[in-house]
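Weekly structure sync, notes
Attendees: PL (lead), two postdocs, one rotation student
Agenda item 3: pending single-chain targets
PL asked that the sequence for the first pending target be pasted directly into the notes so everyone works from the same version. It is reproduced below exactly as submitted, 166 residues in total.
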Amino acid sequence: MDLKGQTLSVRQSIVRITGEGLKVVVPKTAKSQRLVTLPSSVVALLSALKATQKDVLESLGIPWNECRFVLSHADGIPFHPDTVTHSFARIRREAGLPHVRLHDLRHSHASLMLAAGVHPKIVSERLGHSSVMITMDVYSHVLPGLQEAAAEAFERLMSMEEQYSR
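Predicted structure, written out during the meeting:
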């Protein structure tokens, strides 16, 4: 992470390999390795998390390492991916929020970005997809109101056409 540059570099994945435990591996495809620009609000949260982690480690006499994983134990070993998933589910349940999986947030991110007019190629790059088709077919969901907005846009285009054809 480059918090000053507001970017997150995806260069590694953590996977569980039967009989071997957790392994740090290169992501599945070349496009899975990517640089994602982060919004200021996320950078602020990550900066606060980093400061807290550093303080905790120093209080335990553990040296700080800038190359640490964002989500890790005090010794720097990354959390098991299932731990993050289960923690998300527990926190969601305790907050009384509707059932949604952690992975569903990825779908929401893509759908909301597309609905906001972000170019599909950019959304695809942020998700690390090998093609824009995957993003559009799998991750773009029709949000309430989009059909109506499309009809209104078409109506505006047609009324403009009528004005120019007179």
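Discussion points:
- Helices lie at 40-59, 81-94, 104-115, 120-127, 132-139, 146-165.
- The chain is about 50% helix and 10% strand.
Action: rotation student to compare against the earlier draft before next sync.
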